Amino acid sequence: MTKTAFLFPGQGSQTVGMGASLMASCPVARHMVEQVDEALGGELLSIMTNGPEDELKMTRNAQPALMATAVATVRSLEKATGKSIDQMADFVAGHSLGEYSAMTAVHVFDIEVAARLLRHRGDAMQAAVPAGEGAMAALLGVDVDAVENILAGVDGLVEIANDNSAGQVVISGAAEPVNQAIAAAKDAGVRRAMLLPVSAPFHCGLMAPAADTMAEILADTTLYPPALPIVSNVTAQAENAPSDLRGLLVRQVTGRVRWRESLIHMAEQGVTRFVEVGTGKVLTGLIKRTLPDVEAFNIDTADDMDSAVAAL
Fold this sequence. Notes:
This protein has 312 residues and is α/β, with parallel strands linked by helices. The chain has 15 helices and 10 strands.
């Protein structure tokens, strides 16, 4: 029997018009997005639909928007197939903020709670580091061990933020050390090293104030047992206990997103089909680089939904 994992995208996958195709054809999808919109004061849906893009890119908007479309996709798929998520999948995982989408999809908390948590998370992450003082960069064609060696020779705070796939590593930290690391990577023969157009240095020690904020908020949030195991960004292992999940969401703010290892862990548990749910195809691309022999597809539009219903 085929084992399946549902994957949930992170920040950067957002685009103006996101979710429009599904909302037009699936009343369940529209209802889910409207619930998020209402929970956040009634502006997000308009920004998702009409932009402007600069508003949608803001961390406080992008994060709940991506969660809304991803969870709307899952609920629409459940409606179309007549199956619950635990009848279609064996694991879930989410890239960075996508963990909140994954947890909502498997009923750790409801969608309104997730929306408010992500609004707090986005604001806290944006406020943690003054504009211009942090940076992130992507290093391509290099593995994580080689990047560790490069960073060991750099003075100042710069860390691996995302181990995304075989040959794609993202670093994060203070602006000058990140620039030093880019230069060192090029000197070491790394195929490509480039700054990323981000608003803050996510997933590094500079995010400690945001982690403290989320620890306080999550301490007052009820988390329920998930319907499926959640493969954590922090541990790259399947997690089930609500108390553990709460702590992992806090650690995730400053910790490395161990995405490549997470994919490998799921494959080792017998997963041969990976389904990216929500906006874009970023995770589908990362899967193909790391696990080229597995089945991988995404569900973004109404046409994608029709294909997925047939497959699942």
